[in-house]
Amino acid sequence: MQNKTFNIPPIPAVLLAIVSVQSGAAIAKTLFPILGAAATASLRIGISALILLCVYQPKVKQFTSRQWKLVIPYGLALGAMNMIFYLAIERIPIGLAVTLEFIGPLMVAVLGSKKIIDYLWVLLAAAGILIIAPWKSDTVDLLGVILALTAGAFWAAYIILGGKVSKIMKGGDAVAVGMLFASLLILPFGLASHGFQLMNMNYLYMGVALALLSSAIPFSLEMKALGQLSSQTFSILMSLEPAVASICALLFLQEVLNTNEILAVIFVVIASAGATLTAKQKTVL
Fold it and tell me: 69-113, pLDDT tens digit by residue?
C-alpha cells in the first residue's frame, strides 16, 4: 500500500514536495506572533516524526552501523535546516529567505555537475536569484540574512546525505528515523521558548496540518526522488523554491509580487524545465 501511495515519478515528486513545503512555511509564519519560530518548528517536526514513525514503523534493531552513521547526521541536518530557516523567516520575507537559502543547493549543483548543459540551468536559476533578491534595500535584517544562508548550508548537507542514505536504506525508514533525530535536536529550543505555554487544541491541529504539509509529505517525496535523481538534478529542480515561496506568500500572507519577482519566476521555471529534460534523457539512457 505504501509503495502504491508513493509510486510517483521522481520529478513530479520533487515538484509536489516544493509546493507542499512552501505552503506549510507560509501557514507556519502566521503562528510566529503567537508561538514563536522555535516552538512552531518544534511542534511541526515533533508531530512529523510521530506520524512518520507510525506509518513506516522502521525496524531500527536491524539497522547496520553504516546506516546509523548516515541517517543520524541526515536527521540532524534536516532539523537544523528547518529550525534555522524558521528563525530566518521570522526576521525577513519568505521569498528573500528561500532565495538566499537556495545558494546551498545551487552550490551542490555547480560543484558536482559534469555536463555543460547543467551549467546553463544553474546560470538561469542564479539569474532568478539575483533578480528576486532586494540587494538595494537598506531595511533587510542582517541576522535574518545570515540565518537564511546558514539554513542553505544545511540544505546542501541534507541533499548530499539524503542521496547517500537513500542508497542503503528504504526511503520511509530513512525519513522517519531522520525526522526523529531532527526533533530531538530542535525540541530543546522549543521548550526553552515560551511558545508552548500558549498551546491549545486549535494550535495542535494546525501543528498536525503543518507536519503533513511541511515535513511528512514533502520529505517522503524528496527521499524517494533522491534515490532516483542525481544530487545535481535534484538541486536544480529545487530552483523553483523562490518562485513557489513568493506565490504562497501572496496567497497566504498577501505579499504582492513585484516586477522583479515575476521575472525571477520566469527564470526559475525555465531552469526547472531544462533540468526536467536533462533528467529524462538520463533516465532513458
Answer: 999 999 999 999 999 999 999 988 888 888 888 778 777 766 766
Phi, psi (rounded to 5 degrees) for 281: -60, -40
DSSP assignment string, 27-55: HHHTTHHHH-HHHHHHHHHHHHHHHHHHH
How many CB atoms are located within 10 Å of the residue 124 CB? 21
- Chain centre distance of CA 285: 29
Grid cell digits, residue 9: 515519478
204, 250 Cβ separation under 8 angstroms: no
C-alpha cell at 207: 501543528
Chain centroid to Cα 161, Å, comes to 14
Query: Collapsing DSSP states into helix, strand and coil, what is residue 7?
Result: coil
Q: Is the dihedral of CA 157, 284, 7, 246 positive or negative?
A: positive
Distances (CA, A) of 254 to 16, 28, 63: 22, 14, 46
CA atoms in the 13 A half-sphere facing the CB of 281: 10
Cell 542503503, located at residue? 168
Which DSSP category does 61 fall into?
Answer: G
**Under a CB-based contact definition with an 8 Å cutoff, are residues 96 and 215 in contact?**
no
CB atoms within 10 A of CB 2: 12
CA of 240: how far to CAs of 69, 108, 197, in Å? Answer: 31, 16, 37
Residue-wise burial string across 32-50, b where 16 or more C-beta atoms lie within 10 A, e elsewhere: beebbbbbbbbbbbbbbbb
- Grid coordinates representing 235? 538541486
Half-sphere exposure of 41 (CA within 13 A, CB side): 28
Could you read off the pLDDT of 49-80 as tens digits, one per residue?
999 899 889 998 999 999 999 999 999 999 99
